[in-house]
Design a protein that fits this description.
Layout: H1 2-29, E1 42-47, E2 53-57, H2 60-85, H3 91-107, H4 110-117, H5 123-142, H6 157-167, H7 175-183, H8 213-217, H9 222-225, E3 239-245, H10 247-250, E4 254-263, E5 271-277, E6 282-287, E7 296-298, E8 302-307, E9 314-319, E10 327-330, E11 333-336, E12 338-348, E13 351-361, E14 366-370, E15 373-379, H11 386-395, H12 400-407, E16 414-421, E17 426-432, E18 450-452, E19 471-473, E20 479-482, H13 514-525, H14 532-539, H15 548-558, H16 566-575, H17 589-604, H18 615-630, H19 637-640, E21 641-645, E22 648-651, E23 664-667, E24 673-687, E25 695-699, H20 718-722, E26 727-728, H21 733-738, E27 742-747
Parallel strand pairs: 2-5, 9-18, 21-24
Antiparallel strand pairs: 1-2, 1-27, 3-4, 3-20, 4-24, 5-6, 6-7, 7-8, 8-16, 9-15, 10-11, 12-13, 13-14, 14-15, 16-17, 17-19, 21-22, 23-24, 24-25, 25-26
Helix pairs in contact: 2-5, 4-6, 5-6, 11-12, 15-17, 16-18, 17-18
Amino acid sequence: MKWLKGGAIALVAVLVAVFIALATWEPFFAPTSTAPEYREYSAEIVRDEFGVPMIYGETDADVAYGVAIAHAEDDFFTLQDVAAMSKGRYGAIAGEDGATFDFVYHLLDARGTAERKYPELPADTRALFEAYAAGLNQYAEEHPDEVKLGNLFPVNGTDIAAGFVLRQPFFYGLGNVVGPLVAGEELRREFGPDIPGFPHDGSGNEPDAPATADEVAEAGDVAMRNLVLPWGEDADHLGSNAWAVSPERSGGPTTLISNSHQPLRGGVAWYELGVQSGEGWHFTGANFPGSPFPFLGHNEDLGWTNTVNRPDMADIYQLEVNEAGTQYRLDDKWMDLETKTVTLPVKMGPITLPVRRTIYRSVHGPVIKNDKGYFAIRYGGMDSVAQLDAYYRINKAKTLEEWQAQIARMAIPSTNFLYADKAGNIAYVYNAAIPDRPDLDIVQANWRGILDGTRSDLIWEGTVDYAEIPKLINPASGWLYNSNNEPFTAAGAGSDLDPSDFSPVLGIERKQTNRSRRAYALLSAAEGPLDRAALERIKYDTAYERAGYVADLFDAAEKLDVTGNAELAEARDLLLTWDFTADNKGAADAIALLMIRDFMSAEYNNKNPDEMPDAAEYLLEKRTHLMTHFGRIDPPMSDLLRLRQGDVDLPLDGGSDTLRASTTWEVQDDGRLSLVHGDSFIQWVEWPADGGRVRSESVQPFGAATTRPDSPHYTDQMQLFVDHALKPVRFWEEDVRKHATSTRRVTNTR
């Protein structure tokens, strides 16, 4: 028995040692960064009555250093997540979902791209990023109790650049290519009309393609499936609205309305701030965690906002690989297939598992291996960090010409830009670093299908010229808008671009959203000036057009056979009384809200007609939900849809894909829908017609300190947001200081 007891003790000791190793290994084996070279920084952080910071500094770098500290004071929690993503370590914080980002981080070679390209940026741009990194490092050093992952800091400019490389391609839908290839799902890509050989049903089934989408992705690696799905359907709900109106059409000021739809929390949630330096940088707007500058907003002279666009910016190549899987053929040569084994940390409770994955790469780009072979991906913006410099430059542009010169670099991979300035100019640019594909015969190269990876003539270099992409400057209508729709409905009849003027090889999307249908109709019908009151009615419109997926839903409901099914008949009859508005007034608003999102999701994700939701099944499901939690199927919609943060719980209006957007929600234990994505940062900017100084207002759903429950600015904008109200933006220094509630000087020390 002694030997048995001794063996048990030894086994326990081994298990304890294994547990300790799994609980502690990751920080010690994780790649570390060298802190930026020391330099002195000094910034002043002045916060207004809503806690929004204006950061002052002698140099732009001083300001960037202050931006990092101010943001960390409000949301260091999320900044750490972004820092972990930029090092391929997010799985050590967020488990499987975090490992998703880490896998793609390695697949896209985010670190390698940053290391190669970041040193090539202009010195003043690099100085901005090094200063920002220094600010994050200082905050982490001064608040060690808030750091949630060992050896995460220090960070440097290369780390910040790697985060940009990782995130940007997914705004234009790269996840819709990567995900299906890895997970074994149907490849969903939108197809435009009038392209020989391409259907416009969004089915993804292309005639005469070398391989079908099903053949490409069939029987993918089940273990990797979970590493890709988080970039699935929810990513397609990222949207936005934007409007620009000339002084002639407004009857007063040049107006720019920014209405971005982003997640209300997390790594791509907006953070409001202002900056001003002695080097001429003076801007107010919002950024994402991990950026030293705003991505949208305005300076004294001009401003812009963005909406997501979805051009076809990714091409897929099937490789011919030798039996050993070590080489692929390109023309008449065999090339070595690059391989690298990476370790993904996956936190599971108190331990972190090391998960090994092999990453492949060819001259085309990243390579994904599945049961049907090896498939390379080449995409717009690949192997570039030039957007870091372009965003910085447009922050400091003073004229339309200066601003457009930076956009024309095609450095920012994708996003629609809506622009306005004090001179009365308005502009819309369908910005996209669209691949400069060879204009080959459609039979030779089906750019929307699976390309022959053995042909070097199909490997494009660079982007199309700026002159080739859609843009409108000062249209006769006097207004411009975008709501994630095609660029050919932007300015009204007589001012819109003609799609036939643009090559189909560009892969420009040809879609409308309900928001675009409503905005276009309301703007086009306006007979008087598009003044403040008229634009507010449009911005907060809660109506649906009976078109697209809304028509599909109601057509299906009207055709339902409800004979013998009283519950289905009751739900169907209620739905058919709906007045097509999500304004909290109708008895059918709640059940319509629940139904709409599923049909919208199916259309946005290019699902086949036979994959659309079953109207009867969904009606019964939604009826059950309402009866379970409300005891009735016609509760006020405002009882169902809520804006929640901490102890504050407020009613909301609007719906999925209305101009007043309450797009995505989380179903909570009490059956209420807590908004997680939709209207987020809203900014209303006006340049007076008399040449006076720019003025603006804004609002966020919660407040400036989104992850600080003890802060008075954790929830202080919620009522404004619910009431369709805005707060003043403190842009001019005398106004900032007059309304300051705190002023703090920050400096760095060794």
